[in-house]
Amino acid sequence: xxxxxxxxxxxxxxxxxxxxxxxxxxxxxxxxxxxxxxxxxxxxxxxxxxxxxxxxxxxxxxxxxxxxxxxxxxxxxxxxxxxxxxxxxxxxxxxxxxxxxxxxxxxxxxxxxxxxxxxxxxxxxxxxxxxxxxxxxxxxxxxxxxxxxxxxxxxxxxxxxxxxxxxxxxxxxxxxxxxxxxxxxxxxxxxxxxxxxxxxxxxxxxxxxxxxxxxxxxxxxxxxxxxxxxxxxxxxxxxxxxxxxxxxxxxxxxxxxxxxxxxxxxxxxxxxxxxxxxxxxxxxxxxxxxxxxxxxxxxxxxxxxxxxxxxxxxxxxxxxxxxxxxxxxxxxxxxxxxxxxxxxxxxx
Length: 348
Known about the structure:
It is a single chain. This protein has about 350 residues and is an alpha+beta fold. It folds into three domains: about 1-35 and about 75-145 and about 325-345, Nucleotidyltransferase, domain 5, CATH 3.30.420.40; about 150-190 and about 265-315, 2-Layer Sandwich (Nucleotidyltransferase, domain 5); about 190-260, Actin, Chain A, domain 4 (Alpha-Beta Complex). It has helices at about 1-10, 50, 55-60, 85-100, 120-130, 140-150, 190-205, 210-220, 250-275, 280-290, 300-310, 325-335, 335-340; strands spanning about 15, 20-25, 30-35, 40, 45-50, 70-75, 75, 80, 110-115, 135-140, 160-165, 170-175, 180-185, 205-210, 230-240, 245-250, 290-295, 315, 345. The strands form five sheets. A six-stranded mixed β-sheet has the order 3-2-1-9-10-19, sandwiched between helices. A hairpin with a 2-residue loop joins strand 7 (about 75) and strand 8. The longest helix is centred in the last third of the chain and has 24 residues, at about 250-275. The protein is flat and about 65 Å long.
């Protein structure tokens, strides 16, 4: 009865604190918020615009388009907090928007973070969440949350492998008997793919574009493997020599070449995790395969490319953008069962 009353007064939250986007799930209601991890500020004062409301979608629209008096900032880079004050402001806004609070209660919060973050970086997440209004804070690795959210049998005595490709990090882990057997996290993911496209067009077309334009190109014609019908896209940017606006037509073959380095790094990350495992678990992967989650999993042909290179089945989760948040929400619903395997604030 008390638990139900507490849930009604102040429902607990699960947060996928991502470099590109933050998702919030409310206990009993599922995912209620999915917004870019961006904050818009007044330059000089570091005051959040719009009385603290220029956060998320509104702030992302300003990226690369602000006058000198305004700046749009991402408080996280490569999956970790780079600006504590802004991350706190962003979390406070998202927490207040996602759930009600009554009776002075603070919600318990489960936050998914990259597996590679250090103890100092974990402490930064705890402190930012607590100052933003959270009560008890627990951290779960993004790879474990992805495995749970994808419905993998990670508690069984066989290999379950997940590769979560977010905006700032790629987290790969192999599970057995509800624990991590082998894992690795690299700070190469969607953002690095966008940067690779920016650099390719600069080097080969003398055309300067922004990362948002690069992301759109990646979505429209990007691929990791040859397509049945190759695609083209018109790109607009600034001529780096003449300094004037110009447009060019690029092909999916060219963008695939631009993406080859970050895609190759993700492949090597998966291989390194497999190499650390016992032969019996590796043998399981022949049947179990690898599940891809995160926004990077949506890159055309990525699953086919990895399947060919790894010689195991590779599939993309049905809803890869929300897999981590769904897994964190499941942990929240069964907090007493999972609490021992989570990082708690007082233990960090």
